[in-house]
Amino acid sequence: MEFDRVVQVRAVGAAAPTRAAFATGYLVAPRLVLTAAHVLATDGPPEGTVTVCRPTSDGTRHLARVLWRRHDGTVDAALLQVEPCDDWRVPDSLRDLGTRPPQRWGRLIGTRPHPVTVCGYPRLQRGPGGRVDEQLTGDVHPGTGRLARRYEVLSANPLPAHDPRPGPTGTPWSGISGAALLCGDLLTGLVTRDRRAPVGTRLTATRTRDLLADPDFRALIAQHTGWQPVLEPVEPDPLLAPAARTRDLRSPAMLLRADAEAVTFHGRDEELRHLLDWCRGGREALSVQVLTGPGGQGKTRLARQLAATLREDEWIAAQLRPDLADSAQGPDHDWSLLDTTSPLLLVVDYAETLPHRIRHLVERLRHTRRRTRLLLVARSVGEWKSETLGAGADTREILSGAPFTELAPLLARTAGADTRAAAFTDAVRDFARLLGRVPGLADADWPHLASGVRPPGSLDAAHYDSALSLQMSALGALLQRGPEPVGTAPGEPVEALVLGHEARYWEGTAASPVFRLGDLRPVTLRRAVAAAALCGAESPAQALAVTRGVPGLPDGRALDVAEWLHALYPPSPGRYWGSLQPDRLAEYHVAAHVTGADDQTLPPVWASASDPQRVRAITFLARAADAHDRAGRGGAASDVLRSLARTVSGAPPTADVLRAAISAVPYPTRSRPLALVDQYLHERVLLACRERAAAEPGAHEVDLTVALNDLSLRYQQRGRSEHAMKALEGAIGIGRRSARRRPERADKALTMPLYNLSRILGDLDRQAESLAALEESIANERRLVAAAAVRDASYLALVLYWFSYRLRRPRPVEAAAAAQESVDLYRELARANPAYDASLARALSNLHIQLDDLGRTEESMAALTEREDVRGRAGLYWMPDHLPRAGLRRPGAPPRPE
Questions:
Q1: Cα–Cα distances in angstroms (integers) from residue 331 to residues 256, 276, 345, in the given order
Q2: Which member of 386, 485, 509, 682 lies 3.0 to 4.6 Å from 480 by CB, making a disulfide possible if both were Cys?
Q3: How far apart (Å, rounded) are the C-alpha atoms in residues 884 and 898?
Q4: Angstrom distance (rounded) from CA 713 to CA 360
């Protein structure tokens, strides 16, 4: 609630020219007042008879004109424009229309009562000097008035004594009509009537959602604010990022942020249609999908466009706040705030950094009865998606089975040079519309300069596959046409060009009278920006610890630099520092300034970092190496990897930090740097486990077995079978020794390496050894299931599935028996949890083949029929026909055949 926007409205109608109707209003733009329509006479007020007064200012009554009025069974609202005059004072809260919308608009989405605030000028606050304001707090019960499409505000607040005016129409709340109904800073309704409750207060209100459904209303809001109004959900607002795009264009790089939406959305019609079909189709209540792709591919922008499209269809579509900390503890956020009676799309960006939060979220959403779609946006799939991390079986299966789509390049090289050139020119034009809003760049005629920018001749190069690369090139080319181009070196990447212009913003703010840091060397400022991007900071204390490690910073200036970084980029709620954006630009800058062989920035910054900051730093450097490699800068990628290894080896983090980083680092799909980082982190985990086992003999064998098993999978994925087998043999040896001492715990760890060893041996055509390891794995798992030492029999079902596959040729009868047992187990699992339907369908396919090989046609066809029944009830319209090649680990999701 902004008190300086609450105004008084008076209107005289032609039918009663001697008496003015009184109402409250709320400024939603510098001169645009939202109020109730019924206070304006139906015959229309004559010219000069509507006035608006701001009592918190000077009390002058200013003439106003009715721009829009609607009074029917659903809406009772009007928009007034204050006529131009010299003495109208715009409220402070409405002076900045460029950075963010002056007003956010909300709707209630759930069924529980929700607190609201109303402020206005009712008759009960009328005194000798006129009316004073009254702030009312109450609750809206969404189920009350729902069929009439209105809200009702209920309050038991005590009212002041008042002298009611004689007559049948007067009530203590006369004059409150037109008051804004606010939930936080979301304008959710407009008070229109007093229900004259015999006890307490009961007011009716027009819903904001009905106002925004009127195209004329929306057009006027957009015209007077410069922002299209967006309807946002009220109850989960603390969990969500604001829906409106940002226009905090304090520096050139801010135009490249996905939420700035500076470049018109284009070229993703097929992908958008696929996601819309996923949201609108299917019979299941909850469905999860993963959208992956390297940085700068357009994932976030596509997700934002999907949400905007669905909001037009009355969906609740929102993105989870990006600054929510990930925690292995129980949910510390009230996810029930997302409960809604409407279809819901929730987008989680940077999903790989929030593995625990995602599990808490799925655990809540899986109970929904309404259509709910969860879109997880990440650089790649990986352990963040498949790990258990304390989640229940249902949640594990939902996440592990969620399909993923890897976003293809926006403009593939097959698109042709003309298509890329047109996209480049369009981007230049779009940037030219906004560059004048960047401080220090307002004097240039950017649209005119844009007309002289020509596409580069190298647009067919591979790095222009990325939408961000093309847009950075367009922005850099336009800036170079401006009044202050920066010096460039031949062959220098476009990131360096854009950062050259961005550095002027850093140096200008540092030298301003606010910070007085003009005496610092530019390289010191750049290192500080890099350190802030690398580690981040949630508090001033964390920020100060980071800046103290920046080389070249004089004694006593660390606090000044920390405060300068705080002001440089807008921080998310709950964070002290924002960061240079987009990520690709920040990653390049970090790699350039903290990972050089002679640069000593990283070691002291790493030494002072907290565990979450270390996880962030590892993830950031892994992404930076991957970005360099994708751009064909293999040498720079190697420099980053060496710097990371030196730093981690010099000041080893805890095993928990390493495991968290493993989950957060993008999965190494077709990426050599990420594969090397992933393997290195697993080697460091193994080293940490060995050190703990040596310090406490007999206490950490299970952890050591798991670490060896996990490392073996990395070796196997990189084609290093001998290394994988050596690691597995070491794990099995430790597991067997430990099993003799503590069978109830060690058996769990022993099954995994036995199973994975059997897979490698089978691939090497050492079938007898493979079957022996598999049989030992099955025997081990049977003991665990019989002793109820595991959550369920899903792992046993999978091992039997693979056992039958291996036995199909040499021992077909035993193979069919194993396949039948696998089906029986999956059938029981699916009966308790439909998430196992996909696993059951695949096991039935295997059984059908095994029985058919034996000539047991009737049983084979029965298995096939059951498989089709399962697919039909579960909506499994497509099933992969391949088998997984990678090994498994028990802490991952419930294993299933594919």
A1: 34, 30, 20
A2: 485
A3: 6
A4: 27
